[in-house]
Amino acid sequence: MQQVQTNKLGKRLKNSRYISGFDGIRALAVVGVIIYHLLPYKLQGGYLGVPTFFAVSGYLITDLLLQEWEQNGRIDFWGFYARRLKRLYPALVFMLVGTGTYITLFQRSLLTNLRSIITTNMLYVYNWWEIAHGQSYFDRFNGESP
């Protein structure tokens, strides 16, 4: 295990734990999910990349929190969530702008509820919004029951 740590600017320093193999596992999980969305009949188990990604990410985040606890005797949860938001939000906004633009230009039939979908995604509550409206994410990818 290589020792790497980040400073306040996110630059890696040399004395904390970093396991590069986990980046590869997460990358494979993401690729599996992307292929599953694009070609669901070619990689039917691609959705399993989601729990794989979350399990590995959960381990890594827990390791970071344990390091913070060992170094400071406490965990700064506000700082933790601010760092998560700073890291994840730009990619989310980019994806929503790109998807919204594509739908507006090429898939106008999908414009129904676009504002609600974008808003709930920006607030990280989209799955709850779908549940409240009687929709199921997985129904889109399943065929008819036998």
From TrEMBL:
GO terms for cellular component: membrane. One of its GO terms (biological process) is lipopolysaccharide biosynthetic process. InterPro entries: Acyl_transf_3_dom, Acyltransferase_3. The chain crosses the membrane at residues 21-39, 45-66, 87-106. Keywords: Acyltransferase, Membrane, Transferase, Transmembrane, Transmembrane helix. The keyword Glycoprotein does not apply. Residues 20-129 form the Acyltransferase domain. PANTHER family: ACETYLTRANSFERASE (PTHR23028), ACYL_TRANSF_3 DOMAIN-CONTAINING PROTEIN (PTHR23028:SF53). This is Acyltransferase family protein. It comes from Lentilactobacillus parabuchneri.
